[in-house]
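Rotation project, supervised by the postdoc (A.L.). Task for the rotation student: set up a whole-complex structure prediction and record inputs and outputs verbatim in this book. Inputs entered:
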Amino acid sequence: MIATDPGPHVPVSPRTANLAALLRALRAGPLSRTQLATRCGITKAAVSGLVTELSGRGLVRPAGLLAGHGRPSRLVELNAGSACGLALGVEAGRFSAVVTDLEGRVLAERTETADVAALGLHRSMDELGFLAGRVLDGERPVGVTVSVPGLVDSAAAVLRFAPTLRWRDAEIADLVAARLGLAADAVVVDNEANLGAVGESVAGAGAGVRELFYLSGGTGVGGGLVSGGAILRGARGFAGEVGHLPVDPSGERCPCGRVGCLETKAGLNAVLRAAAAPGDPLHDPALGVDGRVGLLKHRVSRGDRRAAAAVSELGFALGVAVVTVADVLDPDVVVLGGYFAALGRWLVEPVRRELSARPLAHEPSCRVEPSPLGTSAALRGAAHLATERLFADPTLVPFRPKPSETTAEAPV
Ligand SMILES: [Zn+2]
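Outputs recorded:
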């Protein structure tokens, strides 16, 4: 698994750093103390004390014996159910909440449809806090990551601007922390496409890949980059914002003021307008995003010419934008996420075609894949970063020695 940065770094003591190294090593499976010592570069005597502490925190447990030469050694494994992370999602039309264990398994999830812009920031945060309480059901998460569709100043934990929600300078992390009774530093807020890129690099089309570009299709179009295993943020945290890349100099004027931005061609509403006349059920908000995209997919499959032409034009626009990104960043893989994933069978080829026409096309080119996680990629990435906090600092969960260990030296 590629390690991804858990957000702002909190300095930890050398002992805590060693606890963290052991816990991360155990993600790959059970290990003996000798194996842990070798992998982490820590003496075996020190490993024994550290394992006792991790066990006292409930984070590891015995996992049988490793047979070999001489005496079999005792194995320990990650106790994945000992702590949980919380991922929260805010989109224009819904709130989502997912609780996962330390291996990313979903323990509980809920979504709630809502007109988030109409609710406003504070009522939205109330709704989100309420939804979080229901999925947590009394559990206390080790970390919370909130996915939002906008520009996030990750260092300040502030959503600077979300056009679809009409929110500016929203202190989301503080507002969520207050509603959940958590310390503000336990809550991280990040852009939906950044988190989608993390989700894909952890468990999706980019698993095991170090350089990944994630293109997220929704009402707007966003992009997220994972480079060397970490989110590439740029100077102010706004890297990857590709929605306003110019792709058609003779195209429509975009609300941002430029002409022919990617979003004017690839935003969901623009594609639906191109695919069907006004008044068509394809524009019915009651169907939700998934329903309208499903209907569009159905029409293209059965040969509806107008729908097929709209999706073909979408594929060309994505290709133009992806070529620009690929020239600058040279990713291993480009993942088409959000609603683009559902239309992947018609979008991947046009994007590949544009990439193969590049001057460097004789070189092995980057892969283009539809997201296997679809619209859940951002929440998957958010949940990963929420639990990642514990893999950076295992002392976030309290030490509770078993009765037999109370005479042992209590770690500090
Ligand atoms: Zn624009």
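Student's summary: The pocket of zinc ion is lined by residues 244, 254, 256, 258, 261, 263 (CB under 6 Å).
Supervisor addendum: Confidence is low (pLDDT under 50) at residues 405-412.
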